[in-house]
Specification:
GROEL, domain 1, 17% strand, 16 helices, 563 residues, alpha+beta, 3-stranded antiparallel sheet
């Protein structure tokens, strides 16, 4: 709808009812994309980009990030899923399903004439009830309990590519657990996932290993240098060990071959001073962010010193963590406190490429997980799986409360909220009941993806809950046996932090989408362009009446840039 003489001619209004319907429908469609990926029996999605490279994953957040969504409300759903992935690293697909169910139920209530304000208030009350119930039913655990950590990893990784393709699942879980335990500060309940470096190389899945230190994807500079050094003293530098070119235009006047020889000799003398400073410091491994020329490499090799040049800044940071060293501020004045210590530094061929392994001391603050797979596509998925696992353990260490999974907690919260809805006066009661219905969709989706009959599952769950005694029963979906079971006797557990984040994000995003009732949109014009004098404008007639050359001739015309 256009508004003559009120709005600019390139602005249109979608309209009240149409805007709301479009926002809800587009958001629901986005959530439906990843619905079949929930649970250990979930299906995988494939995305092929403009270069023809494919991404194969059942990670809801990773897949939605790949999909280009234009509609603003649908973008909000993708951003919400990414928020959950960033903060807790798990539960992205559950968040999308819950948002889709909440929006679908809200659409039904809107069609019956229930105001948006009533629906959003009902959802907000339901969120408060849900968080209270989670606080009541959560189970306290010891953050040093490795058995609980293993169960969390099994729950997180079951059905993932890295878990299905690895022959020894328990061995891989122990590898991830060891990586986290090496860097975690259990006394303060803190852990920085960035302290775990994840390196990828083509190879066999069974060759995945953990290095108590860091791995640098570089080779030792010279073949004359040692390939292995034990009890290494490592010097990290951010300066160049080569002759530098002047940043400004400079000229040196040389009138004879002797002056030329003297000039080169002086350059080498300056470099030898730096080499002598390194030797005197006791360092036998030099890792530089910048260059190391052949003359310096030869001088270091004669002293039995290893050097690596043009190492990434992040690698230097990981080496600092692993060895306790610090990047040197001045090579001419090297402090003993700046040197790092490693049990062994050695070069090894991995996947056809040579890499340098820096094995830290007894208590390294940084470790490296070396992932191996047959294809780059699998390596990317393994990387996502490993990050999910690390975030799950981080959540547990920082907040050691767990709940039983497999949809059991959503079912318990839904039934308790439905009971509380009967105590609420007014029409908000209807919205609260719809919130409970939305929560039930998570276990029902698990059942559907496992090949179970949804109606039979719904009936069984309601019967089990109504027949339960005063003792709470954690009935959920046993995907491996395709039946409704008591999850309290299983090893399927999750952290309460993930469920809290899922609920908060889903309700906040749903209410934000529902509160948008009108959209004003500026028309997209493809022939917008800029002149050399800085004038930016567009032609609504395709530029037919525009004088591109103005008063100048063809030879002197100004440049005309399109973008």
């Amino acid at each position: 709808m256009k508004y003559p003489e009120l709005l600019n001619q390139d602005i249109s209004r979608v309209g009240l009812q149409e805007s709301q319907q479009t926002n809800i429908l587009s958001s629901i469609l986005v959530t439906e994309i990843v619905k079949t990926s929930l649970g250990p029996r979930g299906m995988e999605k494939m995305y092929i980009d403009i270069l023809g490279e494919e991404t194969l994953t059942n990670h809801g957040g990773a897949f939605l990030r790949k999909v280009d969504v234009i509609q603003p409300a649908a973008k909000s759903v993708v951003d919400a899923v990414n928020t959950v992935d960033t903060h807790v690293g798990d539960g992205t697909t559950s968040t999308a399903i819950l948002m889709g169910s909440l929006l679908k139920n809200a659409e039904e209530l809107l069609n019956t004439g229930l105001p948006v304000a009533t629906i959003t208030r009902g959802y907000e009350k339901s969120l408060d009830y849900a968080l209270e119930i989670l606080d009541e039913i959560k189970i306290k655990s010891d953050l040093r309990d490795k058995k609980t950590m293993r169960q969390l990893l099994h729950t997180c990784l079951e059905g993932k590519a890295i878990f299905d393709l690895h022959e020894e699942n328990s061995k891989f879980v122990d590898t991830l657990l060891e990586a986290v335990c090496d860097i975690a500060n259990f006394s303060h309940g803190k852990i920085d996932v960035d302290d775990i470096k994840i390196e990828e190389k083509i190879g066999n899945v069974s060759d995945i290993q953990l290095i108590k230190g860091t791995v640098i994807d570089k080779t030792i500079d010279s073949s004359e240098m040692p390939r292995t050094i034990k009890n290494a003293k490592i010097l990290l530098i951010n300066e160049s060990l080569e002759t530098m070119r002047a940043k400004t235009d400079a000229e040196i006047e040389i009138n004879s071959p002797e002056q030329m020889s003297q000039f080169y000799n002086q350059e080498n003398i300056d470099l030898l001073k730096l080499v002598k400073s390194i030797v005197d410091s006791g360092a036998n491994v030099v890792i530089s962010r910048k260059g190391v020329n052949e003359f310096v490499q030869e001088a270091l090799a004669k002293k039995g010193i290893i050097s690596m040049r043009r190492v990434k800044y992040n690698d230097l940071w990981w080496v600092e963590k692993a060895t306790g060293g610090k990047t040197c501020k001045d090579i001419e004045k090297i402090s003993s406190e700046e040197l790092g210590f490693a049990k062994r530094v050695y070069e090894k061929s991995i996947g056809g490429d040579k890499m340098v392994f820096v094995e830290g001391g007894d208590n390294p603050k940084s470790v490296t997980l070396l992932l191996r797979a047959n294809t780059k596509r699998l390596l990317d998925e393994f990387h996502r799986n490993a990050l999910n696992a690390f975030y799950v353990l981080r959540n547990f260490i920082e907040n050691p409360f767990i709940i039983h999974g497999a949809g059991s907690v959503e079912w318990i919260v839904a039934q308790k909220i439905r009971h509380k809805a009967g105590l609420v006066e007014g029409k908000e009661q209807i919205a609260i009941e719809k919130f409970a219905d939305a929560l039930e969709q998570i276990p029902l989706t698990l059942a559907r993806n496992s090949g179970m009959n949804v109606l039979d599952t719904l009936t069984q769950l309601r019967t089990k809950f109504s027949d339960s005694s005063d003792k709470m029963k954690w009935y959920g979906i046993d995907s491996s046996r395709r039946k409704v079971s008591d999850m309290s006797s299983s090893e399927i557990i999750e952290t309460v932090v993930v469920k809290q984040q899922i609920l908060k994000t889903a309700v906040e995003t749903t209410n934000m989408i529902l509160n948008v009732d009108d959209v004003f949109m500026k028309d997209l014009i493809d022939n917008t362009h800029c002149h050399i004098d800085g004038t930016v404008h567009a032609h609504y007639d395709g530029g037919k009446t525009h004088n591109h050359f103005e008063q100048e001739g063809l030879e002197q015309r100004q440049m005309h840039h399109y973008y």
